[in-house]
Structure formats: C-alpha cells, structure tokens
DNA sequence: GATGAATGAGGATTCATTCAT
DNA sequence: TATGAATGAATCCTCATTCAT
C-alpha cells in the first residue's frame, strides 16, 4: 500500500482514499515485509519497476519527449497498469524525484558534506561537489529531471519539487558556511549555487576521463571562488 | 542573396539546377541581388514572419514542444507555406540562431565588450554581462534555443550551431583577457564561462526589478571571481 | 499465440520483453494458446476486421494508393487502433498475404492440383488454372497484392513474400510435371509460368461471362503449349 | 506551338484557345523550324524538358508515386511552369505515351516486324520481341506507363491510351500472321499476346546478362508456341 | 490488480493545383 | 511565359489517457 499510495498522495489529490498517516512508519522500510501486506508487495515492485523504466526512458529521450507508453513498454507492463499507479507522466517524474532526494539524504546525510561548521570552505565545497557528481553518475536521471525548464520560469511540477528540495538542502548547508550573510541574500546565493552546480554538472557529464576530472576541478574552483569572499571574515 | 535566399540555398540543394549561369556573378552580391529577387520579396517577408512566429512559439512552448503547425498558425499561414521555406523545425531554429548571432555581431561588434586589452577584467566582464543580458531581454528566443539539450551530449543541430558560435566569440574575448592561459585550458574555461552565463541568464530572466538586478550582480561576481585568478599576473 | 499475436510478434519486436518465462512452453502451441488469450478475442476480431477492410481498400484503390486511414475508416475504427495491431501498411499487406497463402494451402493442398505424377500435363494445367482463378475470384485482393511492382525489380516486401511463396509452390508442382528439366531452367520456367498466370488472371478478371471463360481457355492454352515441349518424353 | 498545344488539346479542353487546325501540318515536323514561331520553340523545348523529367521520375518512383513537383524540380522549372503546359499529371503521362508510340512507329514502322505475310511465324515473333525489348531498354518509362493498372479494369487514361494503341498495332500484325482466325477471337488473342509481352518484359527487365537473354528466349517460346497452332494450316 | 484495446486529436510532412507578380 | 508563393486537405504515425474485461 504505502508506496503506491504515496505516489499519488504526495502531489495529486486524485487518489485521496489512501491511508496517509502511516507515511512516517513507511519510512522504516526494511521491516515492511513482515506485515500482512502481500498484495502491496506486488504493487511496490511494480512501482519500482515502473520508476526504473521511467528513469531509463527519461535518460534516453529526455523528459519532454518521453512517452508513458514507452515507459510501460520498457517496464514490461501494459499502459493500463502504469496508470493504475500513476495518474500521468508528471506524477512519475515527481515520485522519481522524491525517491532520488530520499536516497540522496539516506546516502549523504542531511548535508552534502561534513557538517562541522569549522570545516574550511574549500573542503566543504570539495566534498559537496564530489558527492553531487558521484550521485549523478549513479543516477543519471537526476539530470533529466533537474534539467532546467524549456521556458524560463515555467517549470514542470516535478522539476519544481526537486528544485525546491535541493535549494533547501543547499541553503541549509550554506547557512552553516556563510553565517554572516543576510537571509535575503542567502536565498539568492543558494539559487546561484544550484545554477552553477547544474551548469557544471552538464559539462562534467558530457566529458570523460581526464577532461571530466578537469571540469570537476573547474566547478569546484567556480564555487569556492564565488563563495570565499562571502565566507571570509572581514578580518 | 539576402537572408531569404540564404535560407533556401544554404540548407537545401533542391533547386540546385536553377539559374546556373549567374552563379559566379551571384557571388559578388551587389548585382545578384537584383535579378531573381523580385518575387522573393514576398517570400522574404514570409520568412521573416515565420521566424518571428517561430521565436514566439519557441518562447512560449520551448523548442522541443513547439510544433511546425503551431508556428505556421502563429504566422497566419498554412503548413504547406512553412515547408516551402524550411524543410523542418530544425532548419527554422538554425536560421533563427544564425540571425540572432548575426544581429549580436552587428549590434555589439565582434567582441562582447571593449576590445582594449588593457581593460581591467572586472570592467570587461561587466560590459559583457550587461550586453548579454540586454540582448537576451530583447530576444528571449535566444534562451529557448540555447537551452541545454534534454539529454546531456545530445544537442539539436540548431543548439549546437549557436553554442559553437558563442563559444568562439567568448573564447576570442577570453584570449585577450587571459593571455597566459594555455589553449587546452582556455577551451575548457570558455565552456565553463558559457555555462555560467547561461545559468545566470536563467536566473535573471526568472526575476524582475531589483531581484533581477541583484542576480545580474551575482552573475558578474561569479565570473569575475572565477576568472580573476587566471588573469592576475603571478606577480 | 494465435494470429493476433502472430501479427505482432512475427513482425515487430516491440513487445519482446513480455512473458519471457513461458516462451519456451509457448513454442509447444497447445497450452500457450490458453492463458494470455482471453482479452485478445477482441483484438483477434479487430485484426480480422482490419484485414478485411484492408482487402477491400486495396481492391478499390490499389495497394500503392491505399491509405492506412482509409483502411481504419473502412474498418470503422480509429487510426490509432490500426496501429495497435500493425506497424504500417506493409505489415498489413504481409499479414494479408500470409493468410491468403495459408488459405490457399488449406483449401487446395500443397499442390495446386492432382499430385499423381502420371496426370497428363493438360489435365494438371487445367486443374491448376481453375483453382487459381477460383481462388482469385473469391479473394480479389490477391491480385492487388500480387500486382507487379511499380518499378521493375523494386517490390514491396508484401509482394515479394507472396511472390516467393507462390514460386515455391509452382516450382514444386512443375518439378513433378517436368522431371527432366535441369534446376536452373526450372527456376526460370517457374518465373515465366507465374508471369503468365498473372497476366492471364488480369485478363480474366476484367471480363465476365463467356468472355471470361474464353480467356480462361486461352490462359490454359498458353500454359499447356508452353510447357508441353518441356514435358514431352524425347521418344 | 504544335506540341505544346497538342498536349492539351489531345485530352483536355482546358486550353482550348490554341490553333488546333495546324495539327495535320504539324506532323511534318522537320521543317517546322522555318515558320516565325520563335516563342513556340521555347515552349517546345520546355515540353521536351518536362517530358524527359517526367520519364525519369516515373521510372524511379513509379507513375502512382511520382509527383508533379518532383517532375518540375527534375526539369529545373517551377511547378507553375509545368502547369502552363500540362493540366495535370495524367496529361503528362498521356503525352509521354503518345510520343513513345510515335517514336515506336517512326523507328520500327507500322508493324513491329517484317511485313511480308510469308514470313514464318517464328521469325516474325523473334523480330517483334527483339524490337519490343530493344525499345523498352531505350525507353524504360514505357514499362512504368504500361504497367498494368493497380486495380483490374480501372486503368489510368494514359495507360489506356498506350494500351489501346499497342493493341491496334499488335492486332494488325497478328491479322497478317493469323489470317484464318475470326475477328472476335483475334481481339482476344491480341489481348493475350500483349499480356504475355508485358509479363515477359517485366522478367526481362529484372534480369541481366545471360539470364536476361534466357528470359527473352522464353518469351519468344511462349509466344511462338501459343500462336503456332493458330497459324498453322490444318494440313 | 492487470491487461490490452480503443480513442481521436495532434504531430510532421507532401502534394496537386492555383495565383499574383 | 515563368516564377515561386500559397493553399489545405491528406498522408502516416504517435500519444496520453480511458475502459471493458
């Protein structure tokens, strides 16, 4: 139940009649198998299957061009089945994004790097970029979903959700590194950092080997140099 | 031989066997313009019309989602007419990109800012960003065309053309500002700068008034801080 | 995997990743037929409907000029439905041809006439032509499909398939009637016979009543006279 | 003038305002150059150009699939120009057919072979087939035009015209070879012969070298054997 | 839950033909 | 005459989505 329901509840109201309360408990997934949720297990698998397929299709065709039929085909199920779990393409993307953020949090913890506020900026950026890149290499669909909107300002819901979540996390992290920056500026700086991250990511992903390393280096340079003056004590 | 002709001749060889004699003379543009042009005035206007319509549609739907039918409709012509001038959507985007770059060059000259090599970095960046932003506000379709590929590495031809042209121009400009950077690095730095530009542009375009100004400021900061260490004499 | 499935599986690999486990068993048709069939009854009917419609359209417009939309319309379904079963016009023609050959075999047996090698040539030809004509009158679409290519040598796949199958059958038949003809010649003679058949068929189909009978007579004459010298014992 | 006008007058009434009277004199073409018909010469050339282009396009795409735009393009003129000389595709085919028959007559005389009624059948067929094949190799468009109708009985006008003319010529020829056959039968036999010719022609055109020769041989065999019993004196 | 059939509007593109210049 | 622009219906095919089973 949970996952299937979660999918629909998280963003769309179409599937309202689902137990929304046990979401917290659902988080402790590892033991979920024990409860008498036989048929749900199947649904869970289906959803995973579909999301995997969607990730694959989004990566190979881009989000806009991806078709629900293609996703169903890739997942080896019928279109009808797909729509049993997701009301539309957008919902798939949203759930995919949710899970990505979930995994990011699971893997790297709340922050994208060492939480010790004493960590020097350079080190913090280094860690964050490395993790970010690493994460993207393992989940290339992240790029497809994050990929800026075709039209400035008009983001798909899925994109927006991811974007917002990421901003929050980055802002939290930045707040600890740039304690002296006023809130209004911090939000803007956060947006800028995310933009730089994404721009750098694209360059990194389109290169390989030594070149890729070099671009990772540049991305770190960009961020460090941009943030250093903001972090540095006026001393 | 102006643009109208350029469209058809530069991309399609369909009418290759036409007016074979004056081809040589046609190369010396001044005269060639007169003869087989007369009727093209109408076509010329249509092409402009179509490109304008395309710009509008690309802006409001994004390149991927834009349809040739929509463009024709927006231009107030039948689908067939569109195809008399452009073999497909891509060709429209390419021509649009060509004209944009043409205008950029016309308006701002070869470089995006003061050519004097003695210009301090800060000032050069300031000028370049201001022009770039200004240009984009007057031609919002530029963003739609430049907007990174849906799939990393898989760019549309049109995008690629624009991208390449811009890189060249930026690299030229950077070369004069960063004379000591080795060529291999310069190319990478150029890519990075373009990425930063585009990332900043998106943020600028999605904000207005004071916020927009603030983002412009940040973009300049990013670039200046990134480039400063590369430009600074080791002294 | 009845016909419906046959259509999709035999030509398109689109649904390849489906039911992977019972593939082995599916080969032993008896059981495979039962399970995933239920809902396909509808599809089965649709396919028959579509093929019937296609036959009708091919007959009235010719294969080349027939449009998939026209076929769908004739079948009373939407274009999308047609494409659920056939990837394109060609596939429809191919399936139609397959079924025609299937029926021909079912109805007249492997040979187009008496198999007894002692049957005199005249009698064999008589039987073969009668059956061939009869078959074509009951399935006029056969002509539309068999109708030679618009461009010599450039046959549509569907045509080619039919053609090849027919050649095989005729050659087998001829081999028993002309035991002394070398293989290389036999192939050529087979091609010629099929050509004569088709030429005669066209004439037969464009006439009626007594005239038609007369043309049937002529076709038999042509074949008998052509083949007689090849069959006659040198004695 | 002549040709241009002829084109339109012969089948369509659309272009009525042309001097139809000089058609007879126009037949004596060789001297036509002398009259003060300057501008007509241009039209003549255009027509030849267009017909040549049409022949080429018909051959490479087949009559049905050929488009007037493609013909105009191949001829290096605009679509409008094509329609200045021919009211539609059909008219082009008809004129092309007319000229083919004209040339056939010019080249081989009224009959397709020796006119001497004493010529033995075998020799007459031999000559006729050789000429027919030869003609078709030099004018491959003939096949495209003659190529049986997509739908039995529903011939295009152009096809029909060619067909009829050919039948007449063949019947004339046959009449001299088969003097004892009643008229009703002769018409049918003529149709059959043309059918055999065409069937053989297709086989010949789709093979090359020795194989082609072998098929020519077979075609002759078919015709000779078919006709021999009709020609032979019962003695 | 699962299936696959069904939809029909919309996508890109072509074509025979007409018209203004 | 000749051009090339214009048309709009028709082509094939796809897609997100719904529905009966």
From TrEMBL, chains A, B, C, D:
One of its GO terms (molecular function) is transcription cis-regulatory region binding. Keywords: DNA-binding, Transcription, Transcription regulation. Residues 21-42 have a biased composition (Basic and acidic residues). PROSITE patterns: HTH_TETR_1, HTH_TETR_2. Residues 1-42 are annotated as: Disordered. The keyword Transcription regulation applies. This is TetR/AcrR family transcriptional regulator. It comes from Streptomyces cadmiisoli.
């Amino acid at each position: 139940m949970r996952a299937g329901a979660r999918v629909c509840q998280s963003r769309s109201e179409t599937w309202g009649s689902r137990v929304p309360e046990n979401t917290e408990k659902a988080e402790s997934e590892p033991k979920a198998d024990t409860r008498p949720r036989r048929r749900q297990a199947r649904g869970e698998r289906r959803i995973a299957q579909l999301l995997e397929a969607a990730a694959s299709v989004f990566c190979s065709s881009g989000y806009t061009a991806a078709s629900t039929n293609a996703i169903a085909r890739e997942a080896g199920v019928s279109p009808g089945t797909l729509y049993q779990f997701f009301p539309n393409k957008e919902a798939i993307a949203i759930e995919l994004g949710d899970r990505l953020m979930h995994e990011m949090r699971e893997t790297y913890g709340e922050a994208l790097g060492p939480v010790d506020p004493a960590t020097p900026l350079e080190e913090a950026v280094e860690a964050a970029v490395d993790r970010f890149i690493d994460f993207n290499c393992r989940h290339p669909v992240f790029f497809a979903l994050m990929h800026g909107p075709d039209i400035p300002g008009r983001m798909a819901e899925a994109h927006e959700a991811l974007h917002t979540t990421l901003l929050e996390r980055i802002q939290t992290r930045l707040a600890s590194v740039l304690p002296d920056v006023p809130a209004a500026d911090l939000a803007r700086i956060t947006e800028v950092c995310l933009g730089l991250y994404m721009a750098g990511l694209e360059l990194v992903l389109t290169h390989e080997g030594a070149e890729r390393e070099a671009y990772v280096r540049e991305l770190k340079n960009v961020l460090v140099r941009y943030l250093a003056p903001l972090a540095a004590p006026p001393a």
